[in-house]
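Predict both folds.
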Amino acid sequence: MRAAPTDRRAMPGDFLLADRAPVPACFVYVLGCIGGTRRLTYVGWTNDVEKRLARHNAGRGARFTRGRRWILLHSERFDSRREAMSREWHLKRDRAFRRSLALALEMRRRKTRG
């Protein structure tokens, strides 16, 4: 009877955790914009919030965000893309939360105007 080797070589198709690149953090974000009399919000997920906000404001983000000036209202950090996408799904359906963020944006805007 042969003894099982203690030092097994990696075979093609093996996935060793030590060989995997670290997964970058994922973020869910809520953007706000006041367009005329409407308070708009947009929910999305990304690996880099600042870069994504810049893309939205440059007109290279989602079609809905083009042509508007967006402000970051809220962001949350997650360790996996799956968690971030799940939270994004929930935030898109939580209108009360998004409305409260948009109202806070409007109040902040009124204070700065004087």
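Second protein follows, with its predicted structure tokens after the sequence.
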Amino acid sequence: MQVVEFSSQTHDNVVDLPPNLHDLNGRPVRIILLAKEGAAKPAHAAGFKAVSLKTKGFRFDRDEANVRCKASRGCLESAVTVVI
């Protein structure tokens, strides 16, 4: 049995596997879920309809964004341990 630990954010009752674990897709796994306490869903702003952003000249770098997110730990909503 192999033990793998990673952090993820749940959505629609789904926990996404990080790219380095995609070989586990379709395999039976045992999952232990450790959710952060007090990490409730953010309330939706009342009356919020739309946003308009000017993105001309904006360059998005996914790797850079992930580094910033991990450094601030703002993107880690829950920790998941997968036991194979």
